[in-house]
Amino acid sequence: MKNRRLVIGLTGGIGTGKSTALNAFERLGASTISLDQIAKEQAKPGRKGYESIVKNFGTCILNADKSINRALLGRVIFSDKRAKLGLERVLHPLILKEMRELIGRMKGIVVVDVPLLFEKKLQNDFDATMLIACKPKTQLQRIERRDGMSLAEARLRVKAQLPLAQKKKLSDVTIDNDKTVVTLEKKISEYFLGLTLLHRGSSHGNPN
Asked: H-helix or E-strand containing 7?
């Protein structure tokens, strides 16, 4: 365990509430990193990720202002497994490099939202892993409501990820998020208190 910081890998599935949980940790005082946000930054014009995406998918996935049409790119990669793997191959090394650099500059409790934590076997990057999960029906309803997708599209997105049942077996902690945001935030607050006590204990006597 790192004494200067306690790094938690936060994961889940699309629509399970990872972003809500990450925001709750941030409000409580944790340092937070979102790999989705890093990916969005990498996809902006002038970044290496942008160049790689355009090279692999062509200018047809660009908007009129040369920015990447994320909705179109999403439909392409979630309907074509080979395209999805190709995108991951060019983007993930850039995203992980940036993630590790950011973690290295942080202290205290660090929570990192990593959508493909178990799919990409990234457990060794973290001191512990936390899964935000919910029932399949709840997950599909949230995706439809949040992203305006059809049920078929929502199911396709869920199917592209490792099943939550498998992630539960791999995760150190699972938080069920089938109820309200307030209920989830209360659970996060309780875990944050425990993590704070754990970090203080592990850092005792360390000048860093």
From this structure: strand 5-12
